Amino acid sequence: MEYVYDEKALPSVELEKHPEWEDMYKSAWRMAFKNVRHPSTPGWKPYMGALNDSANIWVCDSNFMVFFTRYSGGTLPSITDLDNFYRLQREDGYISMAYTPEPEREAYPGRIMMPIFAWTEWEYYNLSGDSSRFEKVVPVLVKYFDWIKRNRRRPNGLYWYEDSGSSGLDNSPRGGYPSLNQDGSDICFVDLACQQALSAMHISKMAEFLGDSQTAERFSAEYSELAGLINRRHWCARYGFYYDLNYKSSETCDYYLNHKTVASFWSLLCGAADSDTWKQRKMTEHLLDPGEFWTMNPVPGLSRDDPNYDPMGNYHCGSVWSNMDYMVASGLKRCGMKYLAREVAVRHLSTVEKVWNDPAWGNIWEAYSPEYYRPASSARGGVVRPNNVGCTGLVPISMLIEFVIGLDYNARKNMVSWNISEKGRHAIKNLGFNGQKIALTAEALDISKPGRIVKVENEEEFLLDVCSEGIKIPDQKRVYRLKPGRHELKVS
After folding, report:
1. Dihedrals φ, ψ of 419, to 5°?
2. For residues 92-99, average pLDDT
3. Cis amide prior to 103 (ω within 30 degrees)
4. Percent of the chain with pLDDT over 70
């Protein structure tokens, strides 16, 4: 199948106050189509390259790219990217961090990376309504979860990556780079524990959907155990932060690594912090501290008060990576902090757009400086790679739609939730949701008039949950059941 750019087949966006974001949105789609790969090796499906010259397919990038390619309505390879990894899964459940298609081989043998397939599959379903994949992927994901549990878990129940590179934060000082024996240098990585918990949560949801109560109950229990361990072991009450641990074989000898990294915010997304709103509040305080993570362009991979922090980026010693910002914003939204999630998205989107519009740079880059309007510096002192509508495609597409326009999806309830925060007229049209196309428009906010006009066009019945940031009216109708057709709603 050929994947050809067709603007009319994609969702269109309108932002009265930010036409420059509209332009970058369109440009990002055009760049994405140049990154499609068609391996000649038998068994391979077309996939999105992380960069337009990428020779490998990566677990991290392939998962995060689904969060924007899912909006393409099938005009780009999306969830099928993941099928390439599933096909290459070993009988014992192992899936490598990256593969080279031609010739077919593991790019980095023996290493894993960000086990987030289950989260990706569930969120793809929430938009598309396509649950047909669950029956095939649940056994794959169970085997993968179990391999990691058998092979990357220490006696204290916590998890280890081979080194910082496997965690996706290559040269971060969080733990031995590289680890001589690929054993994580005795580090217990907080993000891997959180990612396993996130996987358990979503495997349980998919199993429940399939009516497989045994698997659903087992992974609900796996989730509860992991969330408890994360809170007992990775949480430092003194400083109010989830830290990596240095493991020394006993309860009394473990100690926290004194590096605060963006990896700790996986705790919000996986829900470990849900058990205690105080933990959410403390993590938010660290996020909003200008001396830590609230830089001009949030969220740096390494806290600003770390001696290894570099304001130019130095790859993962300060750079802002779009997939990590998407993770942080998604975690904030999950914890009910939609306004803060939007602020992270707006600040990062503004930086990416300014660099894209700067003649000196004029591109979409792999990562960005936390303090300057420029691409991040690489670990070797140069500049990170351009033409990166890999993970960075999340910013002008997914973060724009989900956090700036403010959409969330629940295919099982057949519901779109719309958190209206933009003051100017804004709209999205030709949006594929749960097997139909819908269009949503919010007219500009006029503070001299009560209410706001929202227009909807839909092909089939669905539920629309509308709320406006900062306005709560207990008796206001908020969820509308909309028959097929055109609708005009007045909402407060």
Report:
1. -95, 100
2. 98
3. yes
4. 94
